[in-house]
Structure formats: structure tokens, C-alpha cells
Design goal:
- With 497 residues, the chain is mainly α.
- The protein has 3 domains: 162 residues, no CATH class; 94 residues, DNA polymerase, domain 1; 216 residues, Intergrase catalytic core (hpI Integrase, Chain A), CATH 1.10.443.10.
- Helix content is 63%, strand content 3%.
- The protein is built from 21 helices and 4 strands.
- The strands form 2 sheets. A two-stranded antiparallel ribbon has the order 1-4. Strands 2-3 form a two-stranded antiparallel ribbon.
Length: 497
Amino acid sequence: MAPGAPELAAGVRGGVTDRERLLDELRPAAFAIAYRMLGSVSEAEDIVQEALLRLHRALEDGQQIQSPRAFVATVTTRLAINELHSARARREQYAGEWLPEPIITDSSDDPAQHAEMVDSLSLAMLVLLERLSPEQRAVLLLHDVFDYDYVQRRKQLGELATWEKRNHTVRELGREWWANYAVPNLAEWTLTGYEPMLVKHIERRLGGLRVGEVSPEIVADFRRRLEAAGVGRHSVRLSLVVLQAMLKQAVAWGWVPTNPVKAVRKPSGKRERAVVCLAPSQVEAIRAALLAKERLYAATLVSLVAYQGLRVPEEVLALEGEHVRAKTLLVEQRNIAGTIVAGQKVRGFHPRAVDWVEPARRDVTEYLLALGLRSGPLFPRADGEPWKLHDYKNWCRRVWHPAVKEAKTESAKASSKGKSSGIPPYDLRHAFASLQIRAGLSIPELAEQMGHSPQMTLATYAHVIRELKGLPRVSAEDQIEQAREARGRQVDVSAHR
């Protein structure tokens, strides 16, 4: 039977008293290691207390520890190594020799142990220990002084490493995952969506839990609490996706044996409601409200999203003067939280050239002439730099939503809930799809122009295709011009009242 196993069994069966007896028996050996490593009585006592506390927690958690003595020795050694790394930085300004603090003993101490301590802390040994790195010092002490062989040492490290990893908090895992996996491997826009889920939901509700404590029941309760708090279906799903990705890496890193999130069902990622495609008359009403406020840039931005199908904010806010060509609008980069990066949202999708719809081309030309722009960002900030994410959010709140409200195109859903506008700027992009479907553009061509797969196009706009089936084809240009002419007649009538 392994050393300490009878005591461990007695501790489990006998309760606190036997557990305390086991800890008391392990304390002298732990102190001997810590003191030889650190040379400070107070620091050694702190290390020993922490090591015994970790053993107590492990036993409380039901961990199967073959040798409590080896466990405590390894924990003590690791803690002492960490302390030495920080202690050496504090000693850099001290020019003299470092000597350990003396130990005050009483007459009841074992003379043999006292002699052993004196021998292991001889001047020669002290000089040697001071010149070694913390890791080298640990190996020397465990091998020469405490007679631990290399194989036994590696077994201790493995057993402790597994236990220590399981006892990292979810917050620590999140930060490790973000720095060492998410940032190097995930797209910038993906990170922009993941970060709020990690900070607002995962760390806030699960951050203090130890990784080894996360179970399918806890994950299911996490989903329930998010939904009870009114978090939207998409955010709930995304939070679970992030948590699953974190724990997938925890499995790969050996922190936990399995991923508990895989056992919990996520909300569906499929769209539950049909997209709303604004009619050209509604788009023109919004543009008119913006132009009335002398916001030509905003009206032009609306034209590019609604009539050219650009994604907002990432594609339209990354446009530059050289992307405006004679017959097409080139989309080859994105604005990711204020940083311009090359590529498309869909990985592997080539740069796309969107055929000009004449009214949109005319709007952009007038905008460029009015501002005298020939190169650089089409929609720069006041300082000439690309918009940041907070700039876009401020624009939505201060410019977009009031314009939509003034144009009286709020959705019924928004009106019933008292929101300023139920139409996000991204919905303008669906107007482009509706225009082109009515014009008779094929699904593969429309998918190419919008920058995603034909399958996605068909799944998103099947209801629009069905609704427009059988109607005469009308070019996108004619649909927009008719809406503008009708808008002009409305303005003339209002002026004569």
C-alpha cells in the first residue's frame, strides 16, 4: 500500500480529526522542503499552509490521491519555485550574499533532524543553491536531500498538473483560450462577436467556477438563466458556442477529460422569421429624411447598402475611392472595429465586383463631387480615419433610427415594444436582393453579387421568390426611379398645400 494511503482512508472515514492528523504529519516534511528552497521561515510557513490547504480541498472533492506525502511535496515545490521567481526580482538590488533566516528550535526537537537540517544548509550547499535556478534547486533538494528519484518526481508532477489544471477557474480558462487560441486563429469579425459573450455572459455567470466543476447540468442551467434574463436567442447560442470552444481547448490541453457543453442542446441557429425586404419607396423615404438634415454621406451610405447589397458596417465602411469603378463597385476588404483588413466575410470567397445599379452610381458620384474625394475612405471620420465600432453604434442611435422614425417605416414589432426603430441598417441589404429577384437575376448570380453561397441565398429569400413569382420583370433601376418619381410628386403636392 502506498505511503499515506491508510491515513487517507482513515481521513475519509473518520472525518475532520483524522484529516487534521494526516495534515499535521505531513507538515514537517513540507516545511523542510519549503525552508530549504526559500531560506525564509515566514515564507516557508505560508507555502506549507497553502500546500496543505490544496491537499484538503482535493480530498474534499473526492480526488483519488495515491500518495498524499508526494502530493504535498510536489505542491510545496511548485509554490516555492513560483515564490523564488518573484523573490529573485526583489533581491536584484541587494549586493551581498543571500543567507537563510535562522530557525528557532526548542528542546523537544529531534536532534537527528536538527543535525540533518544543519548539514543540508551548510555554507557550501547555500552557495550552490543560490547559483541554481529555482527549478534546478528543486531537483537537487528532492534528489540529494530527500532521496526522490527522477521517475517518482515525474509521476508527482503529472498527478499534480492534472489536479491543478482542473482547479483553474473558467475565467482563467477564458483568458488563456482568448490569448493562445482565439486571437491567433479566429477572424477579426468573429472575435468582435465572441468577446461580448465571453465577458458579459460566460465570465459574469461562470467565471468563478473551477473548470473541473463544469458539468452538463451547470451548462444547461447557464442557458436557462440567460434565457430567463431576456438574452436573445442568438446571443444565448453564441455564448454556448464560445463556451464549447473554450472547453474543447481545455480537453486538448489536458485540463478536463471531456467537454460538457457538447451534451447540452443549443438554440437553433436557423432563422425563425422571414427577412424584411424594404421597398424602394421606403428606402427613398429614409434617404429623404437624411437629406433634409443635410446628411448627404448618410443618404449615400443607405444607397450603397440598399441598392448595391453591401454588408453594413464592415463592407460599406471599408470602401475607398479606388473601389468606385466605371461599371462595378469592388468589394475586397472589411472594416473590423476600425481596422481595415483584406478579404471577404465568407472565408475563401474571392473579391467581388458588384454591378452598378445606375441610381446608386449616380448617388455616389454626386457625393464624391460634393466632398472632393478621389482616394482614401469613402466615409471617413472627422480625423480622416476609418470608423470604429463605437462610431457606427453612435451613428445608428443618433442618425439612423431618427431617420427611420421620421420616414414612418418602423416595423410593427418595434411599435408594439416602444423601440425607436425595428429596422437595423443591415436590413437594407435585403432590399437589394428583392430588387434583383424582381429584375429576374438568377440565384447563382445574386449569390455572387451578395457574397455568399446559392444555398444561403435560396434559404434566406425563398419567400420573396415565391411572392414575386409570375410578376413581370422590372429592372432594379426602373424600380428605384419609379420610387423617386413618386417621392418627388409627394413633395410637390405637400409644397402646394
